[in-house]
Design goal:
By secondary structure, this protein is of the alpha+beta class. Among the domains are: 123 residues, no CATH class; 101 residues, no CATH class; 74 residues, no CATH class; 43 residues, no CATH class. The chain has 20 helices and 18 strands. Strands 1, 4, 5, 6, 7 and 8 form a six-stranded mixed beta sheet that branches. α7 packs parallel to α19 and α8 packs antiparallel against α13. 29% of the residues are buried.
Length: 572
């Protein structure tokens, strides 16, 4: 039965904070754990998780905000589960972070946290709803409003995430899948097909391949092919609904071909990147990027990038198999990004994020994409489409002609053939000559709207002032922050749902670090200082616990370098 936890809302009379010295209390209030309590823990909406519990009258659940908060703390400090529970039991700051303000209060049992994670995973598998992502979205939206951060300008990047699986080679994978099939067979079938398993069941897949000579690899592959063929043909009707057999069947069709009752091994170059990488992670795929190979997934993040913001926050996350391109990833994610931040109007990416399908989403939503480091060839003849302030479409060529395009069924631009005939790029130009029999033949280039959108997108970056052309660069630092706790870009867990949770919790922790750093960087003004400069204040208002006021910097006071606008934390 679901029950909300509201105990933390009533301060304990003899709680931890009331037993601290003045110096200790100051450090306590400046700690990241205290910031976590105020900016994360208190804002977790437990009701979203009520779907995980029974509606009948029964034993109440462990406090959801404590469970979710503990998982975020684990990623905030890169703790193991053992370290997490040690800190929850004995660290005063950690206990305060999840609303426990007394030393004589026990925390929940370890099994409660693991059962909660399993509930989240099962619910996601059944419904497709990611409850942890809902927490991230809710917290981020609240933080953007509270600190007045603008989300109209954002930047994004992708990064590879290796799944925590063994790096099987081909024969090793085939043996491992065969061994797991053996475990689900009944005793009669184990006896009937013992010749197919005898060589493998007493050794690990790694031990078996250790003694295989390189020249014997083709022979071993063919032997495995015969075993797979025999087992699949005779067992498919009996075990087709068993999970281990489904994996076996998938590997069978991915690695072998059956023609006229004869089995053949697929060549290595016929194996695609989406084949099974490990029986422990069915969705992991293979990709090579920057001379590094990875078996797992690709993560994508978006964050605010408006230069007026005091600091930036991660606003969106996505996780997909790593064999899809950046443009396809952005195409799938853009509608969700627009829904969460409807004011989005500029998006900074690298050169791989552009594409016609992305343009179809950007154009009706009035979003400009700025791509840096675009790769690929320019159009033949140097033809470039651009748009004038009056929204008219023009085409400029390297020969110096700049002509207005006309829209009929499609679009076309007509050039002066006399000028084109003397152009050194004439033979490379994609324009076609028309009216040869007439006195004044002309050249024309036909194109469609998707070509316009593509050229305008590419031109966007060139129109930026130099100060904004490096706006995307800082997203690399955010990528490194999300990879905190990963070793060689390989995460500690496996399967898409678990890695997605890992990424989401790390993003919440990353945003919290930025908020904490920002609050600690603010100048703390006591009331006497406020009285001293009150004559200099032009305007004052309070918003979300912060004093906002503007100061006349021409007035003399003992602060010689005041900013024109200050934000001061409201304290007691």
């Amino acid at each position: 039965m679901f029950r909300e936890n509201t105990n933390y809302q009533q301060p304990e009379l003899f709680g931890i904070s009331h037993q601290l010295t003045k110096k200790q209390l100051k450090l306590f209030e400046q700690s990241v754990e205290h910031c976590f309590f105020n900016k994360v823990f208190c804002l977790i909406d437990e009701k979203h998780f009520s779907v995980l519990y029974s509606e009948t009258h029964s034993r109440p659940n462990v406090a959801v905000n404590q469970l979710v908060g503990s998982l975020i703390l684990k990623h905030l400090f890169d703790w193991t589960y053992e370290e997490l529970f040690k800190h929850l039991s004995f660290n005063l700051l950690t206990r305060h972070a999840i609303g426990i303000d007394k030393l004589d209060t026990d925390i929940y049992a370890e099994a409660s946290l693991f059962n909660f994670q399993n509930r989240l995973i099962n619910y996601f598998s059944e419904t497709g709803q990611d409850l942890l992502m809902d927490v991230f979205d809710s917290l981020t939206l609240d933080q953007l409003k509270q600190f007045g951060l603008k989300s109209d300008i954002q930047r994004g990047d992708s990064f590879l995430i290796g799944s925590n699986i063994l790096d099987y080679n081909r024969i090793q994978l085939l043996i491992e899948v065969l061994k797991r099939l053996y475990l689900v067979l009944d005793e009669q079938d184990k006896t009937t097909y013992k010749n197919c398993f005898a060589a493998y069941i007493d050794k690990t897949s790694g031990q078996y391949i250790y003694r295989i000579e390189k020249g014997d690899l083709p022979k071993e592959l063919m032997k495995l092919a015969q075993h797979y063929y025999t087992l699949h043909k005779n067992l498919v009707s009996k075990y087709s609904q068993i999970h281990a057999f489904e994996i076996f069947s998938r590997v069978y069709y991915e690695h072998f071909i059956v023609a006229s009752d004869k089995i053949e091994v697929r060549l290595s170059n016929e194996l695609h990147s989406g084949i099974l990488m490990s029986p422990d992670d069915l969705e992991a795929t293979f990709r090579k990027k920057a001379r590094k190979s990875s078996k797992g997934y690709v993560g994508h993040l978006s964050e605010t990038a408006n230069q007026e913001n005091e600091f930036q926050l991660i606003t969106d996350l996505a996780l997909e198999p790593n064999n899809i391109g950046d443009a396809e990833l952005l195409e799938k994610r853009l509608p969700k990004m627009i829904q969460k931040t409807p004011d989005l109007c500029e998006y900074f990416t690298d050169g791989l994020y552009g594409g016609p399908e992305v343009d179809k989403i950007l154009e009706p939503n009035n979003i400009k994409q700025y791509q840096s480091g675009i790769r690929g060839r320019r159009s033949y003849g140097g033809l470039r489409i651009h748009q004038n302030p009056d929204k008219s479409i023009w085409v400029r060529c390297s020969g110096g002609q700049d002509v207005k395009a006309i829209k009929r069924k499609g679009w076309s631009a007509t050039f002066d053939n006399a000028i084109c005939s003397n152009c050194p790029l004439e033979k490379l130009c994609v324009t076609k000559v028309y009216g040869i029999k007439k006195e004044q033949p002309y050249r024309r280039w036909h194109f469609q709207k998707k070509k316009i959108l593509s050229h305008l997108r590419i031109n966007n970056f060139d129109t930026l002032p130099d100060s904004r052309k490096t706006l995307r660069a800082n997203v690399e630092a955010s990528v490194r922050q999300l990879q905190f706790g990963m070793k060689n870009s390989k995460v500690r867990v496996r399967t898409k749902v678990r890695i997605s949770a890992y990424l989401t919790l790390t993003a919440i922790a990353t945003n919290l670090k930025r908020i904490h750093n920002y609050l600690n960087s603010l100048e703390y003004w006591d009331f006497s200082m406020f009285l001293e400069i009150k004559a200099s204040i032009n305007s004052l208002f309070v918003n979300d616990g912060l004093f906002h006021f503007q100061i006349n910097t021409n007035t003399n006071h003992n602060k010689s370098a005041l900013k024109s606008e200050l934000k001061v934390v409201c304290t007691n």
